[in-house]
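>> received
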Amino acid sequence: MSSARKRLTSTSPSRTAIQDRHHRHATNSCSFVALVTAIFVGTAAAADLQFDHFWIVVTRDAPERAALERAGLKISPNVNRHDGQGTASISAEFLNAYIELIWPDPTVSIAQGAERGVEKFKNRMNWRKSGWCPIGIGLHRAGPPMPLPFPTWTIAPDWMPKGTAIEILTARDDTKSPSFFIEPPVSAVKEEANRKIDSASPASDHPIGIERITDIQLIRPKEYQPVAAFTYLEKAGIFKSTEGKEWVIEVTFDGGRKAQTKDLRPDLPLMIHY
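>> returned
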């Protein structure tokens, strides 16, 4: 299942208030990052899908946010309440994506029939004991919808605009895979819009100076057998994967131009390269 973008909730302002700050980089660095970004996005676009954002399911109120802050990421001050879905979240925002920490929240309403979805989030939150995957990969379409070579299903929680839905690529009864889903156009990340909007305090102004996600790699447990959606998205260039001990998501920012790495484990199953 997916989570809310905070610009769609009544309790949060637009998440796209991001200042265009790229003039501060040297021209050669910008050119390199632009090339890496084009490769990352262009490959995915061949399959009509592009990476949008990812989430990690954490414990209530996300004390794990401290790991992101220690690593030099800025967390948006808004808490997103996903009415009807029974979850809440916070995010760290970038020009072309965002990282979301999401948790089952007993103070958020659950729509009738959505109880199973909340249980899934709880199992993902307790992933080290349950064996579920704590990671969700959000996508958006690069063009008109095209059929996928495996069954999908949709959800339309209360927090979403009427007439819109999230398409879920992970099977309903899958207890081992990441959650793969496609955001509707209204909630998709729009980098060009983010670049044009001026703000006195941009949410993506991170202390370590990162701006774009340019590569994703999933480390999967050796016993995990990739399902059709996993294999399809990997072949489409959305992410790479390799075997390991447990689930981890490795994220590269700006082509890794600073040659720095930070490992956020055990607080979060996350490594960042920038």
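>> The chain is about 20% helix and 25% strand.
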